[in-house]
Specification:
about 850 residues, alpha/beta, Beta-Lactamase, Alpha-Beta Plaits, TIM Barrel, 5 domains, 5-stranded antiparallel beta sheet, 27 helices, about 25% strand
Length: about 850
C-alpha cells in the first residue's frame, strides 16, 4: 500500500543514492521531466541537474546528515532539453547502512511566470510594452555610473506626439492606443540595440542614447531629426487621416547640467516644452532658460493653488463703448493675480497653468460670482445697469449643468441674467461642437448673452457660426487695422462686420488704440469697441469714478446728428484748391483739403467726410486709385472726380465699379459744380437716413426677438411650474388616499368633500357620504369633532371600533378652507365592557 501511494502521489518524489544514482522515481517525477518506462532509475541526479557537481552533491549529503532536511531551489533539465525551475524539499534517509536523499519536487515555473508578469506590469507600459519612467530612471542611473568615470556622455531625447491626447479626448482611448502602437512600431525601426527608450505616458516618449565613443550634440540632433521624419505626416486611422506632429527636447549629460542623472530627465522635458512652444516638429536643446521657465512654471502652479484662499486674485474692468452713442454700455471682467514674489500677473501668465492643473474651475467660478456681485453693487449705488462680460474656460463649459451653475450664481447675487454676457473663444468650438451648442443654448435659455471672442483668429466655419446661439462677435486686436493698413485687411474687418449684422449679431472691436481705428470702425458701422484708446482695465474704484463722471467718446468721432456737411477737396495744385474753397464756402460746407491721395486718406481718418472731390492726375496716386481706396475704407462717402485730363478707360472702369459717382471736367462752371456737389450731399443724406432707418428696424427686430425669447423662456418656466405643481398635487392625493387610517375632509360649511380609501371602507354600509353635511350623517362623534375642530386628540368609537381622532382646521392665506379629520384605529382589546375605549 505504501508503495502504491508513493508511485501514484501527485508530488514528484526521487530517492538519490550517495553516488548520485537515482534509486527510485515515482510517476509524477517521470511525468514532470518527460521520461517514461522506468528508465530514470538508470540515470543520475547529474543527468537532470547538470549544474550539480559530484563534490557539490557530497557537500549536500553531509549538510543533510547534520540538519535532517532543508529546502533549496534548482533547475532541472527535462527529456526535451528545456529547463524546469523547481523547489526541492530534501531529507536524509539511512537504510541498511547506506545513505540516501529523498527529494520532494515542486514545479515553480508558474510562479516564476507570474513574478515575471507582475514585474512587466509594474515596470512596463501595458499598451506599448516599453519600459516605464521608473525603469528608464534606473537604467539612466546605471549608465551614468559607468559613463562618468570613463568621461563618456549620455543623451536624453524627450519626444511628445501632440495628437495622442487629442485622439483620446475626442475619439476615445481605443483609437488613441491604436495610434500609439502604430507610432511605436515606426520609431522602433530606427533604434540601435544600445539605445533604451520608454513610454512616459500619453504621447510622451524618452530615449536614452549611449555610445562607446564620444557622443556629441550632432549625433543627438541627427537622431532627433530622424524621429521628426518618422513621426510627422499623415496617418490613416480607422478610415480617417490624422496629421501627426511632435516636439523634441535634447539634453546631453553631464555637459548640459550638473552630475545628478535624475535632473537630466526633468531638463529633457523642459527642452521639449520649449520646442512645443516654438511650433510643430521643432527640436530644442536644453538651456538654462528652459530650466528657469520650467522651475518658474512649477513654482507658479504651487502658488496658484493657494491664491484664492489668500485673496491674491482680483478683477479689473475694461469699459465697452457704444459707437452710436459714445457711452459706456458694459464692462469686461479681467482676472489678475498679485503675488508677493511674482508681482502683478496678467491672465496669460497663469491661466494656462490653471487649465493644466484644473484649478481653472475654481478660478472661473470665483470670477463669475465676483463679477456678478460687482455689477449688482454698482446698480444698487444708483449707476445705470451695465452688461458684465465674463470669460468662460473650456473646462468650465464642459461641466455638467453649467447653465444651472450660472443660474444659481445669478440668483445668489440678484443680478438680472440679461446683464450678463458669457464670452467663449473660437478654439472652444473645435473640441465638441454638439456639446458646446447644447451648453450655450442652455445658457441662452436662462437669459444671458453669448459672445464669441477673438473671432477671425481661429477656425470657425460659417456653418458652425449659424448653429450657435451667438449674440455678439468680438474682433481681435489683429483684425482692428489702422488707417495705414492694407486695403485687404480693412476689407476683412468690414466683411466680418457685415457678416455679423446679416446674422443679427452685434460686433465689438477689441484693442482699439488710435483715432484712425475708431474712425474706421465708425465708418464701417461697428457696434461697440473696447481698448486703451478709451480706457485701460481699471480697478473697481477707478471704474466707478469713470462711470460717475459719465465719460464717453467725443461727439465728433461718432458722427452725431447736427454736424455740418463735410467736403474733402484733393488736388496737388494749391490754386485749384483755393478757388474751390472760395466757390463752395458760401454753401456752408465744412471743407477739408489735401494735396495728395495719401494725405486724403489721412484726412478721411481724421474727419467724417460726406463728399470727396478729387483731381485725377496727382503724384504717387491717381485720383481714381485714391477714390477706389476711399471706397474700400469708407464706402458710404460720395466720390467725384474733377479733372482736365480724360483717361476714358480708367474713368469708365471706376464709374462701373461704383468708385466714382460723377466725373466733372476742368475748367468748370461754378454753378454747375455747386449743383452737383449739393446733389451729392443730398444723395449722402438720403443714404444715411435709409441706413439709420434700416438699423432701427434691425435693432427693433433684435429687441423683439429678444423679448420673444424671454417670453418663451418665461412660458416654459411657468409650464414647468404647473407640471411640477400638478405632479405634486397628484402625489399628495395619492398619499392621502393610501394613508392606513380613515381621512375625511370638510369644506368650510361642513360638507364632506373628501374621503380616502380607508374612510370609504369604514362607512361602506352607509353609501357615499360625499356631498352630505356632517350633521346629517347621524354619527354623533363626527358631529362633535367637526363642531369642536380644536386640533386635540379624542378617543371615540365608530362602527364598534375604537379610534384616536383629531379634527384640525385648514387655513389658507385669505380664509378658512375647511377641516381635516383623521381617525387612527386603536386595538379592540382596549375597550371597556360597555364598549367605550379605555
Amino acid at each position: 500500500m505504501s508503495r502504491f501511494m508513493m508511485d501514484h502521489s501527485p508530488v514528484p518524489v526521487l530517492v538519490v543514492a550517495e553516488d548520485g544514482r537515482l534509486h527510485y522515481v515515482n510517476e509524477a517525477a517521470e511525468e514532470l521531466l518527460g521520461y517514461g518506462g522506468g528508465c530514470m532509475t538508470e540515470m543520475s541526479i547529474f543527468d537532470i541537474a547538470p549544474h550539480r557537481r559530484p563534490d557539490m552533491w557530497r557537500n549536500t549529503l553531509d549538510t543533510l546528515k547534520l540538519t535532517g532536511s532543508r529546502t533549496l531551489s534548482s533547475d532541472w533539465r527535462a527529456a526535451d532539453g528545456h529547463t524546469i525551475p523547481v523547489e526541492l524539499h530534501a531529507s536524509s534517509l539511512e537504510y541498511e547502512a547506506k545513505s540516501y536523499v529523498v527529494l520532494y519536487a515542486h514545479d515553480t515555473s508558474g510562479r516564476q511566470e507570474a513574478q515575471e508578469q507582475s514585474l512587466r506590469l509594474a515596470r512596463f507600459d501595458t499598451v506599448t510594452g516599453l519600459p516605464d519612467r521608473q525603469m528608464l530612471h534606473d537604467r539612466l542611473q546605471a549608465e551614468a555610473r559607468l559613463a562618468l568615470p570613463q568621461g563618456r556622455r549620455i543623451a536624453l531625447v524627450a519626444v511628445e506626439v501632440n495628437e495622442i491626447q487629442k485622439i483620446n479626448e475626442s475619439l476615445g482611448y481605443a483609437l488613441g492606443d491604436q495610434l500609439l502602437l502604430l507610432l511605436t512600431r515606426r520609431m522602433a525601426a530606427g533604434l540601435r540595440k544600445s539605445d533604451t527608450w520608454a513610454h512616459m505616458g500619453s504621447g510622451e516618449f524618452m530615449f536614452l542614447l549611449t555610445d562607446d565613443g564620444q557622443l556629441d550634440d550632432d549625433l543627438a540632433l541627427q537622431f532627433s531629426r530622424q524621429l521628426v521624419e518618422t513621426l510627422s505626416g499623415p496617418v490613416k486611422l480607422d478610415g480617417a487621416v490624422v496629421e501627426v506632429s511632435c516636439g523634441i527636447g535634447i539634453v546631453v549629460f553631464p555637459q548640459d547640467g550638473d552630475e545628478e542623472p535624475r535632473h537630466a530627465l526633468r531638463q529633457a522635458e523642459a527642452a521639449m516644452r520649449m520646442a512645443q512652444a516654438m511650433g510643430p516638429n521643432q527640436i530644442c536643446f536644453f538651456t538654462a532658460e528652459a530650466n528657469a521657465k520650467l522651475g518658474d512654471k512649477l513654482a507658479r502652479a504651487a502658488a496658484l493653488r493657494e491664491a484664492l484662499g489668500r485673496q491674491e486674485l482680483y478683477l479689473q474692468y475694461q469699459p465697452q463703448i457704444d459707437l452710436v452713442t459714445g457711452q459706456v454700455i458694459g464692462v469686461e471682467a479681467l482676472v489678475r493675480w498679485r503675488h508677493e514674489l511674482f508681482g502683478d500677473l496678467a491672465p496669460d501668465d497663469f491661466i494656462p497653468i490653471a487649465e493644466e492643473t484644473e484649478l481653472i474651475l475654481d478660478i472661473s467660478s470665483w470670477v463669475l460670482k465676483t463679477a456678478c456681485e460687482s455689477a449688482m453693487r454698482w446698480q444698487q449705488s444708483g449707476l445705470p445697469a451695465l452688461r458684465m462680460a465674463v470669460n468662460m474656460s473650456a473646462r468650465q463649459l464642459n461641466q455638467p449643468d453649467i447653465a444651472g451653475s450660472v443660474e444659481a450664481i445669478l440668483r445668489q447675487t440678484g443680478l438680472d441674467p440679461h446683464c450678463l454676457t458669457i464670452e467663449v473663444t473660437e478654439s472652444m468650438l473645435m473640441n465638441d461642437l454638439a456639446h458646446v451648442a447644447d451648453a450655450l443654448s442652455a445658457l441662452k435659455s436662462i437669459g444671458v448673452h453669448i459672445a464669441l471672442d477673438d473671432f477671425g483668429t481661429g477656425y470657425s466655419s460659417l456653418v458652425n457660426l449659424r448653429r450657435l446661439p451667438i449674440d455678439m462677435i468680438k474682433i481681435g486686436r489683429s483684425l482692428v487695422p489702422d488707417v495705414t493698413a492694407a486695403t485687404q485687411d480693412v476689407s476683412i474687418t468690414r466683411a466680418i462686420i457685415n457678416l455679423a449684422h446679416s446674422l443679427q449679431m452685434k460686433v465689438v472691436a477689441v484693442g482699439v488704440e488710435s483715432d484712425g481705428e475708431v474712425a474706421l470702425l465708425v465708418a464701417n458701422q461697428c457696434d461697440q469697441m473696447q481698448g486703451f484708446y478709451f480706457s485701460e482695465p481699471l480697478h473697481e474704484q477707478d471704474m466707478l469714478a469713470l462711470l460717475r463722471d459719465k465719460k464717453c467718446l467725443p461727439q465728433d468721432m461718432i458722427g452725431r446728428k447736427g454736424r455740418k456737411r463735410t467736403l474733402l477737396l484733393v488736388d496737388d495744385e494749391e490754386s485749384i484748391v483755393s478757388s474751390l474753397k472760395r466757390l463752395l464756402r458760401r454753401d456752408g460746407y465744412d471743407i477739408v483739403t489735401a494735396n495728395s491721395g495719401l494725405q486724403g486718406l489721412q484726412r478721411l481718418a481724421e474727419y467724417e467726410v460726406d463728399v470727396i472731390l478729387s483731381d485725377q492726375r496727382m503724384p504717387g496716386m491717381t485720383g481714381v486709385e485714391f477714390l477706389r481706396r476711399a471706397k474700400e475704407l469708407y464706402p458710404k462717402t460720395v466720390r467725384m472726380v474733377l479733372s482736365g485730363y480724360t483717361e476714358l478707360q480708367s474713368i469708365t472702369d471706376a464709374i462701373n465699379e461704383g468708385a466714382i459717382y460723377k466725373f466733372l471736367t476742368k475748367p468748370w462752371n461754378d454753378e454747375l459744380v455747386r449743383g452737383h456737389i449739393k446733389e451729392a450731399f443730398q444723395q449722402k443724406e438720403m443714404a444715411d437716413e435709409n441706413l439709420r432707418l434700416d438699423r432701427e428696424v434691425q435693432d427693433a427686430n433684435l429687441e423683439l426677438a429678444e423679448v420673444n425669447k424671454r417670453l418663451q423662456h418665461l412660458l416654459a418656466y411657468q409650464q414647468e411650474q404647473i407640471n411640477r405643481e400638478e405632479s405634486s398635487l397628484t402625489m399628495a392625493r395619492d398619499v392621502l388616499e393610501n394613508i392606513p387610517a380613515p381621512l375625511m375632509g370638510f369644506d368650510p360649511d361642513g360638507m364632506v368633500a373628501f374621503m380616502n380609501t380607508d374612510a370609504e371602507k369604514l362607512f361602506s354600509d352607509a353609501g357615499s357620504l360625499l356631498g352630505m353635511h356632517v350633521n346629517d350623517l347621524e354619527l354623533e362623534p363626527l358631529s362633535m369633532l367637526w363642531n369642536a375642530c380644536d386640533g386635540c386628540h379624542h378617543d371615540i368609537t365608530l362602527k364598534g371600533s375604537a379610534f384616536r381622532a383629531v379634527c384640525r382646521p385648514m387655513t389658507g392665506a385669505a380664509k378658512s378652507r375647511g377641516a381635516l379629520l383623521v381617525l387612527m384605529p386603536q386595538s379592540n382589546e382596549a375597550l371597556r365592557p360597555d364598549g367605550s375605549p379605555t
